[in-house]
Design a protein that fits this description.
Layout lengths: L1 H31 L6 H7 L4 H8 L2 H28 L8 H13 L8 H13 L7 H21 L8 H23 L11 H22 L3
Helix pairs in contact: 1-2, 1-4, 1-6, 3-4, 4-5, 4-7, 5-9, 8-9
């Protein structure tokens, strides 16, 4: 029994070290960039030895990758879970409005978390200046799985949709959400009182209603 408890304690300790390294590395990568952050810096700030970085991640490159994967995993799981949840309602036949609203909320929520967004934005800015990630990481780990889930849900709710055009429907909807987020950030930096009245929730409501009307108009008119 004692050995079992010791084993559990050791596993918990290892997890704590791993998470501490991830948190610390993310903070330092945000502030100093990949090139400006050394394994020694990370280990010292995380109160770990240098060997622990290699033990858990195999080096700085993979640690950087895992910092990003943690963000991508969270966004992916929130979006897919939201789709699964709404599709389980009303005997698996939710209204189109409900599906689009669920997708919109799950898309916006992780990007509006005030405790995490500043770091994510800084990471993104650093990555754009000094690209270190595999070129296909966003496609493979976020875009493809969420698009597959969204596509399946749309076809279930609107089986008449032309399967060859459904990706265009998804791109149109997500593009509007991304633009609304960009506009909100841009407007808030202007200092103009009237512009600062931009309401993201109101914009999302409009995007959902606009997209629902567009999809229904295509279905009714036979133009997809």
């Amino acid at each position: 029994m004692a050995n079992s408890e010791d084993h559990k304690a050791n596993r918990a300790s290892e997890k704590s070290v791993r998470d501490r390294l991830l948190d610390t590395a993310e903070e330092l990568f945000c502030e100093h960039g990949f090139a400006g952050t050394s394994i020694r810096d990370i280990a010292a700030a995380a109160d770990c030895n240098i060997a622990s970085v290699n033990y858990h991640f195999g080096g700085k490159d993979n640690l950087y990758l895992e910092v990003w994967r943690r963000h991508l995993f969270l966004m992916r799981e929130i979006r897919i879970s939201s789709i699964d949840n709404v599709m389980s309602q009303e005997n698996g036949s939710p209204q189109l409005e409900d599906l689009l609203r669920a997708v919109a909320d799950s898309f916006i929520e992780p990007l509006m978390n005030e405790s995490k967004v500043p770091r994510f934005i800084k990471l993104m800015a650093r990555e754009m200046i000094d690209q270190r990630l595999p070129e296909d990481i966003f496609v493979k780990e976020l875009i493809v799985p969420t698009t597959i889930a969204f596509r399946g849900a749309l076809l279930s709710v609107c089986p008449q949709l032309d399967r060859s055009k459904i990706v265009l429907v998804i791109l149109s909807f997500v593009g509007q959400l991304m633009h609304a987020l960009h506009v909100k950030v841009m407007f808030e930096q202007t200092g103009e009182p009237e512009i600062l009245k931009f309401d993201l929730n109101e914009a999302i409501d409009h995007i959902v209603k606009f997209s629902v009307a567009g999809i229904r108009a295509c279905l009714e008119g036979g133009t997809q």
